[in-house]
Each structure stands twice: as structure tokens, then as C-alpha cells.
Fold this sequence. Notes:
The structure holds two protein chains of two kinds. Chain A is mainly beta. Chain A has helices spanning 5-23, 44-55, 168-173; strands at 60-62, 67-70, 81-87, 95-102, 109-115, 123-128, 134-142, 147-154, 178-183, 197-204, 227-234, 237-244, 253-259, 265-272, 277-283. Helices cover 13% and strands 36% of the residues of chain A. Chain A binds chain B through residues 44-45, 50, 53-54, 103-109, 131-134, 160, 209-212, 219, 223-225, 228, 245, 273-274, and chain B through 34, 72, 74-79, 82-88, 90, 175.
Amino acid sequence: xxxxxxxxxxxxxxxxxxxxxxxxxxxxxxxxxxxxxxxxxxxxxxxxxxxxxxxxxxxxxxxxxxxxxxxxxxxxxxxxxxxxxxxxxxxxxxxxxxxxxxxxxxxxxxxxxxxxxxxxxxxxxxxxxxxxxxxxxxxxxxxxxxxxxxxxxxxxxxxxxxxxxxxxxxxxxxxxxxxxxxxxxxxxxxxxxxxxxxxxxxxxxxxxxxxxxxxxxxxxxxxxxxxxxxxxxxxxxxxxxxxxxxxxxxxxxxxxxxxxxxxxxxxxxxxxxxxxxxxxxxxxxxxx
Amino acid sequence: xxxxxxxxxxxxxxxxxxxxxxxxxxxxxxxxxxxxxxxxxxxxxxxxxxxxxxxxxxxxxxxxxxxxxxxxxxxxxxxxxxxxxxxxxxxxxxxxxxxxxxxxxxxxxxxxxxxxxxxxxxxxxxxxxxxxxxxxxxxxxxxxxxxxxxxxxxxxxxxxxxxxxxxxxxxxxxxxxxxxxx
Lengths: 288, 182
């Protein structure tokens, strides 16, 4: 759907609502963009203590108007379930912080993101582990200090103890290797540095051991070791920083958009829980 | 209410008595490792029950359910400030969760915890009915059922399908809290 058409359709839907309700023929009173197949379910975990632990006393507003969270209703491979978080176009406030939380994971905080101005309207995608069926929620803080939340329910289980996809020795040997894929959505003809939206996918090799997995054969427990810091910058200007937990899937992958500031390279710094540091500079060919 | 329970127990006996004995051999004492594996059809000192009987006993509201599925220990290498909640255990509503009590060689503290947990679940009545379970192919429920019998409980029911059988029938589950013994 075109971004410009969007408010128009929305107002049309709102106008149409009373008529549909009166006619009694409509089963849904939400505009189409707000309908979801898998809304969050009531969560004692969240109500009893997790909310306090994650966001404290802060008032949380419903975020459906300004952001979208797309996840599958169910997933076969619970160790790599994608999510896409998007800021809806036209929201005038910048999102500065985002917490992704899976209520029922042993380690519920998936990741805590800080976004710089160059991220523009946030579009962010990654993959997550689920130990049991659970809500996943995105709690965003806006520039004006408001906190907003959207969430979904995902049927996937077993992802925190799922077998390592390659043998442990190989996973450890290739740890920290990175790739950056530039996905040009603008045709590549604009001039660098003009704030053109760019989209990239950053892939980091790291087993993100949960500490709940075992060696195949010996069944010996593998100690937890995962990426807990990712910093991405363009010529020193922050794109995003992530403080993460092991609920981010093995070989963390982040697809995101940003505004081109003319930088010729993107720097990525990754640190894991053992203190290992990996740094990579990627040349950008934007607008060249 | 009492009649409902009696009917449920009768149904259970039918199931238990007709259960076929084949396949996996009974260990001498307890199973000590590789707990996730095919289990036998019976436990000395307990009756085996299937889904329908477990459900009937649960519906009577008078039978204690004891879940022995292990917890997830906080992993080594986890940063000290990381929020850790362990396993979120969605199970038969109202069950007493006594995590890890089905291991084959529990230490004194674990034995004490198991004994105190059973006592709480039965109000100290060794003739009270008890359903012991974890998941399918889970020797921990086998061990725990056997041990409960040896501790003097006379109406122990072993539900080997556990929560896999339960959820397969779309019966309700609820997140359990671990039983805390001081």
C-alpha cells in the first residue's frame, strides 16, 4: 500500500465503521491495518512482575496507531522465528528506544535497542528463539518521552534448547565473521548524503549459545555465550546499539533501513558475553 | 462429588488393568540417566493411566497432580544483571510443580523437598490419590511415581503421556509456580 494513500483509507474506514456496526453485518470493528490474527493473550508473567522489571512504573500507551509488529502465527523452527518492527509512516515522533520481550522465555528480554536519528522511520527485522508459546512485545520510547507497546502471540516452542545448527567447533571457529548485504530499494540513482532511505541486512556469525543446549553425542551442557552488544555507526554517527540476550537466534541477522548521510563506510562492533570483540568496516556504494 | 471420584477411580482401574505389558524393561532401582527416552508401561507401586483417566481425575477436583518436569537452571556465563525466570511451565491447572524430583539419585535435600511437596499435595494423607507426570517419554515421572509408592503412598497414578498427552487433547493449561518449601 502506498504510504500517501494510507491516511485516506484510514479515514474512509473510520467513516464506514458506524454504518457497518449498525447493519450488524460486520464481525470486526477495527480498521484493517489494526486487525491481527494473533493478538497478545493475557499474561500473568507480565502483570505479576515482568512489566515492573522491564519498564518500571511508566505509563504504557497502545502503540498500534504508530507501529506494526509482524510475526508468524506459528513457526516450526522455534529457534529462528522472524519479527519485523515498523514505524508507521506519518508518525511525527522519532523512536529512540525499543525493547523486544518474549514473556515466557527463560530470559525474557530479547534485546534493548537505542536508535540514532539516522534510522529515520524505524524498519527493523531479526529472528528470535521461543522456549514455549508466548507473547512477543515491542515496547518503544518516543522522543517526547511517551512509551508505547504492540504485541503478538506466537505458537512456537523448544527454540532455546534446540540443537546448534553446525558442530560446535565450526561455530566457534567462524565466530565474529560478518557480512553486509545492501538492498537497494531506491534504484541507486540518488546522490549520496541526501537522506535517501537505504536498506541493508547485517549478518553476524555467532552461535549465541543459550546455556540450555547440549553437545550432540556427549549430551554435555554447552555454556552460555552470546552477543550482548552490537554497535552500528556511519562515520561515527549512531545508527543503532543493541544490548542483547540469547533469545536472538544463532547467527544474528538484522535487516534495517537508515537515511544515507553520505558516509562511505558502515562500522559494526560486536561484543559477546566472553568479552570477545569483533569489528568490521563495510564500504558503502550508496549513490556512487 | 464423592461418587464422581469413585467413578473416575473405577475407570482408571479398568485402564490400568488392561494396559499391555511390552517393550521397555523395568530397571532394577531407578533410571539414572537419559531421562528422555521411551518408558515402560508400568511402575511398581503405581497404576498407569492414560489421557481420559487423567482428565477424569482432574475434573473430580479431588486428586492432587504432581508435575516433576525439571526447571531450567540459570546458565553459566549469563551476565549477573540478566533477568532470568527459568522455565515457564504451562501444565495441568492446579498441579504441584516439584521440579527435578524425578532424577534417579536425588540428594538428601531433594528427597526432603519431594517428601514435603507430596505431603503438601495430599494434606499428609498417604491414602490420598496422586497423579504423577511430566512429559511423554519422561523417566523422571516414572522414577517419581515409583518413589512415591516406596514412601508409603497407596494410590499413586502414573500418567506417562504427561502434558504432551494433555495438550494434544486441547485441555486447559496454566503456568505453574514452583512449590516452595521452607
